[in-house]
Amino acid sequence: MNADPATAIEISDHRACEVALFNYTWTLLEKTGRAPEESDEMVRAAYASRWHWGVAGEAIEKDGDRAWLAENLSEL
């Protein structure tokens, strides 16, 4: 068994996780009346999305929404 989480799953699975987490982050970001716990979850989801995106080998700089999210995580 491979202990490295970056290589333990297929690249296509990393991409699928990234997309789901990215979309979930934006759902929470756009939610009015978001609870503090949801804000914390949103930031965790955004960081996880960014990690999966990087593992999948995608160039985040080429995607405007992902680049914005990656640059603004600490302010969310």
In short, what is this structure?
The protein has 3 helices and no strands. It is mostly helical and 76 residues long. The longest helix has 20 residues, at 11-30.
Topology of helices and strands:
Layout: H1 11-30, H2 36-55, H3 64-71
Distance between the termini: 36 Å
Number of domains: 1
Regions with little confidence, pLDDT below 50 for 5+ residues: none
Order of helices and strands: HHH
Strand content: under 5%
The percentage helix is 55-70%
Radius of gyration: 13 Å
Overall pLDDT confidence: 82
Q: What structural class is derived from the secondary structure elements?
A: mainly alpha
Quaternary structure annotation = single chain
Instruction: Give the overall silhouette.
Output: globular
Explain what you see.
The chain is an all-alpha fold and 76 residues long. The protein has one domain (11-75). It contains 3 helices and no strands. It has helices at 11-30, 36-55, 64-71. The mean pLDDT is 82.
